[in-house]
Amino acid sequence: MTRVLLTYADYAALPDVGRRYELHEGELSVAPAPGTRHQRVKINLFAILLSHVRANRLGELFDAPTDVILSDHTVVQPDILFIEDRMAARVTERGIEGAPTLAIEVLSPSTERIDRQGKLALYARHDVPYYWIVDPAARVVEASTLEGGSYRVTGRLAGGQSVALPPFDDLPLDPAALWV
Length: 180
Prior knowledge:
It is built from four helices and 13 strands. The chain has a single domain (34-178), classed as tt1808, chain A, CATH 3.90.1570. The longest helix is centred in the N-terminal third of the chain and has 20 residues, at 36-55. It starts with 7 loop residues before the first helix and ends with a helix. It is α+β, with helices and mostly antiparallel strands. The strands form four sheets. The chain has a six-stranded mixed beta sheet with strand order 3-6-8-9-10-11, sandwiched between helices. The protein has a three-stranded mixed beta sheet with strand order 5-4-7, with no helix packed on it.
């Protein structure tokens, strides 16, 4: 049996039925809409980051659904993504064409395995410099930096103390504002 790899054109032709589609190396990944805890945390984090990015003119911040076209066979929709100014040409009408500076995934029960394993590997293969995994249930943000083709944890927000995470080393994240 021959395996059929889907392309961006196949992906773009999928019907809009309220599901979140992604292409992971040519294979279709479908996830249900995220739950309310996921959305609250995502909105809080997005607001904090957006204020910082705009105030310091660092680049652009986007939230899902925004297509990140890593290749013709890999299209993802991180919950939040950051494009620094020097990569501004990657922002097109279709979405982000190439690796963003930072991809952030907020865990949901239905996507945790994919976010911790599959997307971690995809983002590394496509040279995304920074990857954050936000775990609302555990109230933890784990920041990883791409080094030598794989990610190394370079920051962690847990507990009640504010912490700055790469690439935003000048932005201490306040857990009280994030987990509200």
